[in-house]
Amino acid sequence: MNRRAFLGGALGTVGAASIALAAEPSEVVLLASTIGPIDAGIVPALANAFHARTGVVVRFVGAGTGATLEMSKRGEFDLVMVHALSLEKKFLAEGFGLDRRDVMYNDFVLLGPAADPAGIKGMDDPKAALRRIAGAQARFVTRGDNSGTHVAEKALWDKAGISPQGGWYEVFEKGSSGNGPTLRHADERGAYVMMDRATWVVLKAKLSLALLVEGHPDLFNFISIIRINPERFAKANAAGAQRFADWLVSDEAQGLIAGFGQAEYGTPLFFANAGPKVRPPGL
């Protein structure tokens, strides 16, 4: 997909959302984002607020973090919003991106059937919980698509000293469609799953799965913004990308993030992270 095709309406063919779709906006910034923040509504909310402030239209598509970064290596976007630090570092080291900034975070949780056949409910350490799931060979659903969620899950299995395999470890064949479909599939299968809290909060009223393990630092989920390197892609809207990235870490945007979801769900779905409060390990 080239930039002209994107601007010309290819959004719908890739399941994208956008704002202010009036013809020929004066300026457009193209954002490739991990799916979760789009599904949760924070990306549309930020895009709308930025448009109201500046008149600049932010158009975005969603994909897993791995796919998002690969698309951006072809020069199709101006910025990426992603959540897999190991992949982000590689993207930066290869010269495709510039100026990684922390924008927000939430956390992952371990969910499973209320009957909890592996007996992990209330465990403090998610690594120990995964060992117990593997030991019981209790069904576990994974996205399996190199998305940020999948990368985080694999990292936790690695920390637990386990390489999950076998019939109990189910790779969801439509995992690349996002966390929402993956969570619904796990619910249908009565399986354990590692999921971001925002997706869980938004969908839990329609599910039978229970929240079993939460609150450990290993489960933090950091979301960043990275500008595409205009020296690699001359057609990138470098000025627009800079303006949007600067705004995302401003008090206005961070305040929007801090309150997002509170009125509807009784809890924020994300936490602002542009200040010096919380940082991913390894930075």
From TrEMBL:
Domain PBP: 27-252
Pfam families linked to this entry: PBP_like_2 (PF12849)
Keyword Signal set for record: yes
Highest rank taxon of the organism: Bacteria
Keywords from the UniProt entry: Signal
Statement: the UniProt record of this protein carries the keyword Disulfide bond: no
Signal sequence, start to end: 1-22
Entries under Gene3D superfamilies matching the protein: Periplasmic binding protein-like II
Protein known as: ABC-type tungstate transport system periplasmic binding protein
Biological source species: Paramagnetospirillum magnetotacticum MS-1
